């Protein structure tokens, strides 16, 4: 109360003024919030963007792992693909002058990435990372829910789902370790599943986008036919996605079928054109069919059921979850029928790996990678349901939140299981690779660019660092001396080839020996390199192994070559240069 009746109540006026200012501030805040929300496209758009929280939360650990992965050397499988790709880019024809028991896809892919990353291990790993991020981001963006929103809202929604796709994929990818990143099967999984995702998601787009998306998916699926022989499962599964539909008209099935078939034709045309320009159409028969089915199928072959039930046990669990989960979800209408495209690929790829019988971890990467696809697929369907609603029903909202939590938990667990997280800095490099690079660097300095190199060893970094063409298409000992390779790594008991099949391996060795010897005599190499005791499998005297394959090598070495020593390279490497 004021002391005098005529004195104004200043404290009350001040409070009212403060309240007025707060109300104006709140009103301005509400208006600003409404404006931003409208600019972003409303709550449906923000809800779609919310999946990015998983990616944001996990990114620091991924960054720590990626720094080490990028500093890692390339394992010998990747180095061999690197070398064949270098050959392609320098006029050495695939399947005629340089061979590999793989389809042409991996060699063309490496050659393409070399345009951006070069041939160094670090440079190529950087190009590989960009490729992995681009393709996995495309998966996430393709599965983002379609909502009626503003342009910026649509962009940010797609970006959030792309970010989620990248983080989930990289969490799986980095779990593979340094030897199985930049690996053939990881690329096949990435491209194959991206192709299926594009065919699947094309049903949710406008006519124009659906046509382009389905065609791109068709291209990728057909390319996988030229990866491993089991790659046929990708176009077959894409056809399954088109065959089964909930509403053929709404899903534009006729248009998508036509576009996907066009994509198949384009994919086939790309491979044929690549072989005509950079390879040998006739040579692919030898390297992609005869060599693997005559020899490689028996090498270190293990029992298929043992692999399925024990050695590949974790991959088998993933395949079963995919098969049962997707088929069950389609049966109860939790997923559209076209989702059947993802049900069978993991199991079929696992069966193919078991039949191949090697037991190597990379052979089941196309099976285990489906975890990422299923996570994205489930989240996509949850977020697409009633996507335009301002508020979801409680059960739906809680289910979506729990699913997002589960996906984040699993990805976090996968990241922390990766060996990259605990690796020291600088990253250690195998001595085999260090020695091979030193030999290659020496050859590059002491031979001319036109020289060819005869190499008998397992580490293709020798030829890659030398940047020299191979003297024969059988540029590593594993393809030159297949008879010794099989003797030292035979099929398991009960899995051996019969007498006729064993004889076919011997005949193939004789053909390889004749062809290699002819090439060596016609075009004497500028250098010959022999590695003793390679892989603990090949002979203790590498030179003697090669002389056994091609006796003409011994007088050539005595008459025209001299042995050199290379600083920092152990005595088990024997390097001969032409001339005295």
Topology (SSEs and partners):
Elements: H1 10-40, H2 43-49, H3 52-70, H4 76-89, H5 105-117, H6 121-142, H7 151-175, H8 184-201, H9 207-223, H10 233-243, H11 253-278, H12 283-296, H13 304-311, H14 313-331, H15 345-356, H16 365-368, H17 370-384, H18 394-417, H19 431-446, E1 452-456, H20 461-466, E2 469-470, H21 477-480, H22 482-488, H23 499-522, E3 527-531, H24 542-549, H25 553-560, E4 561-564, E5 573-578
Parallel strand pairs: 1-2, 1-3
Antiparallel strand pairs: 3-5, 4-5
Helix pairs in contact: 2-7, 3-7, 3-18, 4-5, 5-6, 6-7, 6-8, 7-18, 8-9, 8-10, 9-11, 10-11, 13-14, 13-15, 14-15, 17-18
Give Rg in angstroms: 30 Å
- Report mean pLDDT, rounded to a whole number: 93
The SSE order reads HHHHHHHHHHHHHHHHHHHEHEHHHEHHEE
* DSSP helix fraction: 55-70%
Strand content: under 5%
Largest beta sheet: strand ordering: 2-1-3-5-4
What structural class do you assign from the helix and strand content?
A: mainly alpha
Question: What is the global morphology?
Answer: elongated
């Amino acid at each position: 109360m004021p002391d005098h009746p005529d004195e104004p109540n200043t404290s009350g006026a001040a409070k009212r003024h403060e309240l007025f200012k707060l109300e104006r501030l709140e009103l301005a805040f509400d208006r600003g919030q409404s404006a931003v929300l409208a600019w972003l496209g409303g709550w449906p758009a923000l809800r779609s963007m919310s999946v990015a929280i998983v990616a944001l939360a996990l990114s620091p650990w991924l960054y720590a792992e990626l720094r080490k992965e990028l500093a890692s050397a390339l394992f010998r499988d990747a180095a061999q693909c690197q070398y064949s790709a270098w050959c392609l880019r320098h006029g050495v024809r695939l399947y005629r002058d340089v061979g590999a028991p793989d389809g042409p896809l991996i060699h063309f892919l490496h050659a393409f990435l070399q345009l951006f990353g070069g041939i160094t291990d670090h440079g190529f790993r950087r190009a590989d990372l960009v490729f992995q991020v681009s393709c996995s981001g495309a998966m996430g963006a393709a599965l983002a829910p379609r909502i009626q929103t503003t342009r910026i809202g649509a962009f940010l929604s797609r970006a959030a789902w792309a970010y989620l796709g990248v983080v989930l994929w990289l969490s799986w990818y980095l779990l593979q370790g340094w030897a199985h990143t930049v690996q053939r099967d990881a690329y096949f999984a990435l491209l194959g599943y991206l192709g299926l995702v594009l065919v699947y998601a094309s049903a949710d787009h406008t006519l124009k986008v659906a046509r382009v998306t389905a065609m791109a998916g068709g291209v990728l699926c057909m390319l996988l036919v030229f990866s491993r022989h089991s790659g046929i499962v990708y176009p077959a599964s894409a056809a399954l996605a088109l065959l089964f539909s909930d509403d053929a008209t709404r899903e534009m099935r006729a248009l998508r079928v036509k576009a996907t078939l066009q994509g198949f034709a384009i994919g086939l045309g790309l491979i044929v054109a690549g072989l005509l320009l950079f390879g040998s159409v006739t040579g692919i028969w030898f390297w992609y069919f005869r060599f693997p089915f005559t020899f490689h199928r028996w090498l270190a072959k293990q029992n298929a059921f043992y692999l399925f039930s024990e050695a590949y046990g974790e991959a088998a669990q993933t395949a079963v979850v995919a098969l049962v989960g997707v088929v069950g979800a389609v049966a109860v209408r939790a997923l559209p029928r076209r989702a059947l495209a993802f049900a069978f690929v993991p199991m079929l790829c696992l069966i193919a790996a078991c039949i191949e019988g090697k037991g190597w971890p990379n052979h089941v990467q196309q099976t285990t990678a489906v975890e990422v696809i299923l996570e994205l697929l489930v989240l996509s369907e949850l977020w697409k349901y009633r996507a335009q609603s301002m508020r979801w029903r409680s059960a739906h909202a809680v289910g979506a939140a729990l699913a997002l939590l589960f996906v984040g938990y699993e990805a976090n667990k996968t990241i922390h299981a990766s060996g990259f997280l605990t690796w020291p800095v600088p990253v250690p490099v195998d001595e085999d690779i260090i020695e091979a690079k030193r030999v290659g660097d020496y050859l590059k300095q002491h031979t001319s660019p036109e020289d060819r190199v005869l190499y008998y060893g397992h580490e293709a970094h020798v030829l890659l660092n030398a940047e020299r063409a191979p003297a024969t298409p059988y540029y590593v000992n594993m393809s030159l001396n297949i008879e010794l390779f099989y003797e030292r790594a035979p099929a398991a008991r009960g899995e051996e080839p019969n007498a006729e099949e064993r004889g076919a391996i011997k005949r193939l060795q004789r053909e390889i020996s004749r062809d290699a010897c002819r090439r060596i005599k016609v075009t004497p190499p500028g250098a010959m390199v022999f590695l003793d005791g390679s892989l603990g499998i090949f002979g203790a005297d590498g030179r003697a192994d090669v002389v056994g394959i091609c006796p003409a090598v011994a007088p050539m070495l005595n008459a025209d070559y001299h042995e050199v020593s290379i600083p920092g390279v152990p005595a088990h490497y024997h390097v001969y240069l032409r001339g005295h």
